[in-house]
Design a protein that fits this description.
Length: 59
């Protein structure tokens, strides 16, 4: 499977949506709950790393 095919696969799209959701949640929490926002940003970084590892594995 090529990297382009991986980028367009449904699981990859779902993973990207999950990463985006983590990032949005972190930005919403940042003003009121800095500690929760930090955890949310860490979750976004971890999700992005999993997404990239999947792309590299198939690439």
């Amino acid at each position: 499977m090529t990297p382009t095919a991986v980028a367009q696969s449904p699981s990859s799209t779902a993973s990207r949506l999950a990463v985006d959701a983590h990032e949005r949640a972190a930005s919403v929490l940042a003003a009121r709950h800095p500690r929760a926002a930090r955890r949310q940003r860490e979750a976004a970084v971890a999700a992005r790393a999993r997404l990239l590892r999947g792309a590299v594995t198939w690439g």
